[in-house]
Amino acid sequence: MSRILLAADVGNTRAKFALLKASQRQQLPETLSTFLWKYDVPFARADLQAFASSHAASELECFLSGSHLGHIEEIVEFWPKELPEPRVIRTSTELPIELLVDYPDKVGVDRVLNAIATCFEQPGVPAIIIDTGTATTVDVVSSAGAFLGGAILPGYELSAHALHDYTNKLPLIPLQEILGEVPAVVGKNTHAALRSGLIWGQVGAVNEVVTRIQQELAQTVVLRPTIYLTGGAADLLQAHLNFKTIARPQLTLQGLACVAEL
Prior knowledge:
Elements: E1 4-10, E2 14-21, E3 30-38, H1 45-52, E4 60-66, H2 69-77, E5 87-89, H3 109-121, E6 127-132, E7 135-141, E8 147-154, H4 156-165, H5 175-178, H6 190-218, E9 226-231, H7 234-238, E10 246-247, H8 251-261
Parallel strand pairs: 1-4, 4-5, 6-9, 9-10
Antiparallel strand pairs: 1-2, 2-3, 6-7, 7-8
Helix pairs in contact: 3-8
Family: Belongs to the type III pantothenate kinase family.
GO molecular function: ATP binding; metal ion binding; pantothenate kinase activity
Subcellular location: Cytoplasm
C-alpha cells in the first residue's frame, strides 16, 4: 500500500493542502492534487474531508506547518474526525536541518521546508531558493545541507497594498491584475505606472539579490548553487530573471512530505 501524505502549508493569506505520494531519495514526493483555503471564508471541514476522500484514512499521514500559528490552531480545532490526527510543526527548530542563523527559532517554517526539499532532491549541492509569496524570500542552503539565511522583501501583493494604504490617491492594484499581461516599463497613467513599478521593481530586486548572493558564495563555495523558484508569482518572475532556475511550484509542501519520510 502506498503511503500518502496530506500536508498543509498555512501561510499569511491562505492555507494550501496537498496530497503527496512518497518517493525515493533524490526524488521529491509527487504532488497528486491540491486544495486551497483562503481566509476570507470560514474553514470548510467538509471540503477538506471530500478532498482527502480519494484515499482511505488508513493510507494517510497528516502534517500541518506554516507561518500563521493562529490559522494552524483553527485548522487543528476543526480537523475532520474521519482523518488521522495531524502532526503539527510550529517552529523551525523542530525540523531536521541545521540552522546557521542568529535566531533559529524565529526563521519561518516555510523557508526551512523549502531548504529541506532542495537537500532531499540534490544532496551535497548548495542552493538558492526564491519563494514569491506575501513576502518574497531569497534563501541559501550550503552544500552540507545547512540553512544559512537569506533576504526578505515585500512580495507583489504586499507592495501593492503599501502603495495604496500609505498614500492619498494611489489605487490598489489587485494581485490577479499584477500577475496578468506584462506591462510596458513606461506607464502612461498612474495605474500603468504602478503595474510597471510593482512588476519590474520585483524582478530587479530579485535579480540583484541573487546576483550578490552568487558573488558572496563564490568566495568560499566551489560548487555552483542550484537556483530554485517557487510561490504564487513564480511564473511571472521566471520569464524575466537573469539566470536559470528550477521551478518547483509545490516546494514547501514537498519539503513537508520529505520531513515525513526522514
